[in-house]
Amino acid sequence: MDQIKNLSLLSAMCENVNSAITVTNPATGHVLGYVPSHSRETIENVIAKAEIAQRSWAKTTAKQRADILMSWYQLLMDNQEDLARIMTLEQGKPLAESRGEVAYGASFVQWFAEEAKRAYGETIPTPSSDRRIMTITQPVGVAAAITPWNFPIAMITRKAAPAIAAGCSFIAKPAAQTPLSAYAVTELARQAGLPEGLLNIVTSDDAVMVGELFCSSDKINKISFTGSTNVGRILMRQSAESVKRVSMELGGNAPFIVFDDADIDLAVKGAIASKFRNAGQTCVCANRFYVHDAVYDKFVEKFAAEVATLTVGNGIDNGVNVGPLIDANAKNKVQRLVEEAVAQGATISIGGEDLDGQFFTPTVLTHVQHSMSIVQEEIFGPIAPVIRFHDDASLIEMANDTIYGLASYFYSKDINRIFAVAEALDYGMVGVNEGVISTEVAPFGGVKQSGIGREGARQGLDEYLNTKYICLGGM
């Protein structure tokens, strides 16, 4: 941590060194620091202050909010290297990926600085000559979020930036494994001029308490959550009592499809980028690969050859492509899924090696059947199970055979097939001849049990706005 140049980021992270939550480096097991485990009373005080701050913030102009957001964006980019180093140390991903996430996270701040000035209302043609009808948009109020460890900066900025742009205040509970990035980006927001109480971080080793408090508080008007479908269900049930606005970005089980007319080299490149980014610990990464029988052997050969070039290690070291899994539980799950698949008849084409610590070699499995547990579960690790298919109809049926509907990918050169398959896949996002689809300018979100609502794009701002209808009579 002594290589962090911006000392204010260090002070923001380390002011509670005797507190309850220990933050460790997943690559080495070394302790990085400590953050507080806030009590219920402390969090209630934060909520109360956020409510007060929001009332004043809502009265500012869109341009005033945009100017502060743009200053925050610039500070994020000016401190990209420090933020990337913090993220790699506490989360494990390679430093190059962390730099990319900082830029990605900052892009939402920039985008919503611009969108703040586009929260338009409407003038609606009236059915009666003595009336005028119009709508305006207003902030929902205090918004709260629970964010995951796999993208500890982007998952905060993707939610906080539209909330602040809309005129809301925002409270985030980051994952206990990766709170340092959250404190660092919040410190930069403070330096950018964001008023006290507008952007708040609470940390606790009692996630159940925090979730229940966010959902039950009558001062919080909106809940945003990124995480597992099981936890999302709980938060939705708890929020129902007060009929809160919710947006949920939940689990995924993304199919990656290679048709017989695909550009195989392009498909392999996309597969590597989609599957092994962040050691496979992303909700939109390819989870199961369906490859047409006619090109199956060719794809597997080229795919395995590229996987063999990946370097596993500490993300802070040069040349590392795949970092550690986040904790022992994550590694145990990956080991279990591979062992079960092999027991059910799958073959390890490459990888499958259990390394010391929380590392696992990138693995390609062949002779995989659609019914296997490794296909049905979300892997969240560097494992690629590859399944043969013979015709488009059976492929679509298998691809849609899941409760999840977040991201999907396929490769084909046939324009008729491209439109037919893109429309037939029951997913919120479809990548066609592209393995990395996330961007601030497009709506991110899923269908089925992968979530509700959208983040990014203009739709991301709508999640934090209420539409008010005004009818003027007696004209």
Automatic annotation (TrEMBL):
Keyword Oxidoreductase carried by entry: yes
Active site residues according to the UniProt entry: 249
Record-linked Pfam families: Aldedh (PF00171)
Record's keyword terms, sorted: Oxidoreductase
Domain Aldehyde dehydrogenase intervals: 19-470
NCBIfam families, alphabetized: SSADH
Family listed: Belongs to the aldehyde dehydrogenase family.
Protein name: NAD-dependent succinate-semialdehyde dehydrogenase
Source organism (scientific name): Enterovibrio gelatinilyticus
